[in-house]
Write a structure and sequence with these properties.
heterodimer, A: mainly alpha, 36 helices, 2 strands, elongated, B: alpha+beta, five-stranded antiparallel sheet, about 25% strand, globular, RALBP1 associated Eps domain containing 1 (chain A), metal-binding (chain A), calcium ion binding (chain A), EF_Hand_1_Ca_BS (chain A), calcium (chain A)
């Protein structure tokens, strides 16, 4: 027995904490069943019969007895003790002590009783098992163990008279009493009654309550055997509670309304004030209804209270509704504040793994999960919403990613947005227009800035090449070129796409869609023009002047057209191609290397197309070519890097070429696969761009894309400049107004 | 920083009243009682408009040389009265509002308890725990 005590850590603590007690009980059971006494044995020996304790009043014990009954012989006396527990409780303190004495002396008489009892007590067997376990070992020690349990019991709730010396230790134990209290809760009827009631209780709530309390007490006790956690709910108890819950509310995931719960708990005959307090403790989410977890916690508290435990001021951890954790509620019983269940302390496992480890696990999980579902729903929903929200941003990328890898944000967010849009549009058009998408994406990058403009105008573009729209719409996307190229170069089909800022892209997105329509490629020039026209009015989010978008629109339009045409072309990353196009263009311009284009063309045949398409648009932006040129160079640089093509030629060249190519593209668009035409045009326009068009759709696409990018950038720039112009005009107007206002004063 | 907090039922009897321990509680109880007239006056004045537009926060009911009394009324005519020390100039209106809001939340929590009968004295040491925080910091945590 000393060994047991040691094992359960009692010696460590110097007293029998509840968990210790449980452990000890288990060990007793283990010993009694003849298993080697080891901590592991507790866990392993699931079926350890409940230790036979002399003083068993607890249901636990009876349960043990039940499980035990098979064993019973030696344990008979103990089992006899066990059953009583439920009956015991405070009320029966005397009896308990009595019992304890009895077991010591007369194990046998009780034994028969306990076996009888135990079978009846089904649910809250866990506590019993505990007890039984304890009993067992003690059984081994004959009287002593009994004495042990005896004292054990006595502290439990009653001053068990003293068992043997060993008892002293036990008696020092305070937590056990609560358990016994529970037992007593259920307790009033004699143990047997209890036991009998127990099965019956299932049906009868009131009885159940008592029984439940007993069982719960046992369970609680048992569970609390986990280290220092007096509030833990044992499996049996939990089972019991759940059954009770079901009687009120069949849906385990549902709620028990306050009125029903009130009625139910009023049956426990606790004072209203205490019930109120219990409610406050257990209604964790303060919704006036009890989830399964909350109900179990409340029930548990009721049981505890009935057994004499004082209600805590805060909800013990083990009773906290498991919002998160699915594990056992082996908590440290600390602050109620913790929502999740902290894992039971190390000791808990051994203690918890008594004869019913599986039960513990399944039940708590079940319960917890069910309750967690309930209680956690809010959390999960919130968290989910959060996550979803986050992922919402991401999707933009994926789309675009598919379309084109979001280029790095080299420049202001606008570019980023454009990219996003690119991506988006890319995704939109994944199908046929993947290449287009790619391009649009590229363009859209630029156009994002312009996209605002595009939106308005772009609405016509039904293609959904929002990306393209965004391209064009963003005149400011000077950087977009760069980024796009980057993306092209760097990126691979689909991917990278840095998540562009969600909000912005949207406006541009719409624009881009409008652009897409433009892009439908019916009218290269016309579209572009239209696009341009459309853009100016559309400058919604972006105060960018329409001009920028205009050209940009053109570009995307073309690009779109090209893209659509080039849909046949493989698309690597829809967006990317656009970038690629630009980069390609630039590359072309810079390096006059067709091969490079080819490489990119592979990727961006459509880009080329797009670019080509954009070129015409960019023609409008000749003025901006400079900026574009810069962009191009910038972009080309990345493009180069990515593609490994030769460094781009001076920006102007590509720009110009793009313009030319755009022009060329337009007419050619309809030709060939159009892509080829575009590409050809583009290529043709670009000195460095060999006429690989016919051969390489991709190259065309790439060039188109590039053009688009350029367009976008130019459009962006355009819009920016226009915006500045507007601002300046406004200032002027305001100043004039002030002047006029001042004049009268001067007159006065 | 509130020195006294009171929850008054619709029929103008107190459901919960607590003062900062150091003060003379009776004086505060009296102040709260007399402030009820002001509350009623304000309610009736506002009641002319649609009830929904009624502002829950009544604001400063009346100041004395030492204390200021603030009022708050719920839609069910349950009144919250708070007495704060005048020397606490740091307490701004917004803070008072937030204090009342928290008080209102605590009150609803109490209401949610099925074991609480509306109209009973609020004896929940748990639910009105936040009220104590009002005293300590002026703002429940």
């Amino acid at each position: 027995f000393c060994f047991i005590m040691e094992l359960c850590g009692a010696t460590r603590l110097g007293y029998f904490g509840r968990s210790q007690f449980y452990i000890a009980l288990k060990l007793v059971a283990v010993a009694q069943s003849g298993f080697p006494l080891r901590v592991e044995s507790i866990n392993t020996v699931k079926d350890l019969p409940l230790p036979r304790f002399v003083a068993s009043k607890n249901e636990q014990e009876s349960r043990h007895a039940a499980s035990y009954s098979s064993d019973s012989e030696n344990q008979g006396s103990y089992s006899g003790v066990i059953p009583p527990p439920p009956g015991r409780g405070q009320v029966k303190k005397g009896s308990i002590s009595h019992d304890t004495v009895q077991p010591r002396t007369t194990a046998d008489p009780q034994e028969p009783a306990s076996p009888v009892v135990s079978p009846q007590q089904s649910p809250p067997t866990s506590p019993h098992t505990w007890r039984k376990h304890n009993r067992h070992p003690s059984g081994g020690n004959s009287e002593r163990p009994l004495a042990g349990p005896g004292p054990f019991w006595s502290p439990f709730g009653e001053a068990q008279s003293g068992g043997s010396a060993g008892d002293a230790v036990w008696s020092g134990h305070s937590p056990p009493p609560p358990q016994e209290n529970w037992v007593s809760f259920a307790d009033t009827p004699p143990t047997s009654t209890l036991l009998t009631m127990h099965p019956a209780s299932a049906q009868d709530q009131t009885t159940v309550r008592t029984v439940a309390s007993a069982t719960t007490a046992n369970e609680i006790r048992r569970q609390s055997s986990s280290y220092d956690d007096p509030w833990k709910i044992t499996d049996e108890q939990r089972q019991y509670y759940v059954n009770q819950f079901k009687t009120i509310q069949p849906d385990l995931n549902g709620f028990i309304p306050g009125s029903a719960a009130k009625e139910f708990f009023t049956k426990s005959k606790l004072p209203i004030l205490e019930l109120s307090h219990i409610w406050e403790l257990s209604d964790f989410d303060k919704d006036g209804a009890l989830t399964l977890d909350e109900f179990c916690a409340a029930f548990h508290l009721v049981v505890a209270r009935k057994n004499g435990y004082d209600l805590p001021e805060k909800l013990p951890e083990s009773l906290m509704p498991k919002l998160i954790d699915l594990e056992d509620s082996a908590d440290v019983g600390d602050q109620p504040g913790e929502v999740g269940y902290s894992g039971s302390p190390a000791e808990a496992p051994p203690s918890k793994s008594p004869s019913m480890p599986s039960l513990n696990q399944t039940w708590p999980e079940l319960n917890q999960s069910s309750e967690q579902w309930e209680t956690f729903s809010e959390r999960s929903s919130s968290s989910q919403t959060l996550t979803q929200f986050d992922s919402n941003i991401a999707p933009a990328d994926p789309d675009t990613a598919i379309v084109h890898p979001v280029p790095i944000r080299m420049t202001p967010s606008k570019i980023h947005m454009q990219e996003m849009e690119l991506k988006r549009t890319g995704s939109d058009h994944t199908n046929p227009t993947s290449p287009l998408l790619v391009k649009p994406s590229d363009l859209s990058e630029e156009n994002k800035i312009n996209s605002s403009v595009k939106f308005a105008s772009g609405n016509t573009v039904a293609d959904g090449y929002s990306s393209s729209d965004s391209f064009t719409s963003d005149p400011e996307q000077i950087g977009s070129n760069v980024t796009r190229q980057r993306s092209h170069s760097g990126t691979s089909p689909d991917n990278t796409a840095p998540p562009p800022p969600p909000p912005r892209p949207q406006p541009s997105h719409s624009r881009s869609s409008s652009l897409d329509m433009n892009r439908t490629f019916t009218v290269t020039t016309g579209q572009q023009q239209a696009g341009v026209v459309a853009h100016p009015p559309a400058v919604p989010p972006r105060p960018q002047p329409s001009q920028a978008p205009g050209p940009v629109v053109h570009r995307p339009v073309d690009a779109d057209g090209l893209i659509t045409h080039t849909s046949t072309s493989p698309q690597q990353i829809p967006e990317q191609p656009n970038f690629a196009d630009f980069s390609q263009f630039e590359v072309f311009a810079a390096s006059n290397v067709n091969e490079e284009q080819d490489d990119e063309a592979e990727k961006h045949p459509e880009v080329l197309l797009v670019e080509k398409a954009s070129d015409p648009a960019s023609s409008l932006r000749v003025a901006k070519t400079d900026s574009k040129i810069e962009e191009k160079t910038a972009t080309s640089a990345p493009a180069n890097v990515s593609k490994g093509t030769t460094p781009l030629a001076p920006p102007p060249k590509p720009v110009r070429r793009r313009l030319k190519s755009e022009d060329e593209l337009r007419p050619e668009v309809d030709e060939h696969t159009q892509k080829t035409g575009v590409l050809a045009a583009v290529l043709a326009s670009q000195p460095s761009i060999p006429r690989s068009i016919g051969k390489d759709k991709k190259a065309i696409q790439a060039s188109i894309r590039r053009n688009k990018e350029t367009n976008t950038v130019l459009a962006r720039l355009n819009s920016e400049l226009q915006q500045q112009l507007k601002d300046v005009l406004e200032e002027r107007i305001s100043l004039e107004v002030q002047l006029e206002q001042l004049r009268p004063f001067s007159h006065l | 920083m509130a020195v006294c907090v009171a929850v008054i039922a619709k029929e103008n009897y107190p459901l919960y009243i607590r003062s900062a321990p150091t003060e003379n509680e009776l004086k505060f109880h009296y102040m709260v009682h007399t402030s009820l007239d002001v509350v009623d006056e304000k309610i009736s004045a506002m009641g002319k408009a649609l009830v929904d537009q009624r502002e829950l926060y009544l604001g400063l009911l009346y100041p004395t040389e030492d204390y200021k009394v603030y009022g708050y009324v719920t839609n069910s005519k349950v009144k919250f009265v708070m007495v704060v020390d005048s020397s606490n100039t740091a307490l701004r209106d917004n803070e008072i509002r937030s204090m009342f809001r928290k008080l209102h939340n605590s009150y609803t929590d109490v209401m949610c308890n099925p074991f609480y009968n509306p109209g009973d004295r609020i004896q929940s040491r748990w639910a009105l725990f936040a009220v104590h925080a009002l005293f300590l910091q002026g703002l429940p945590c």
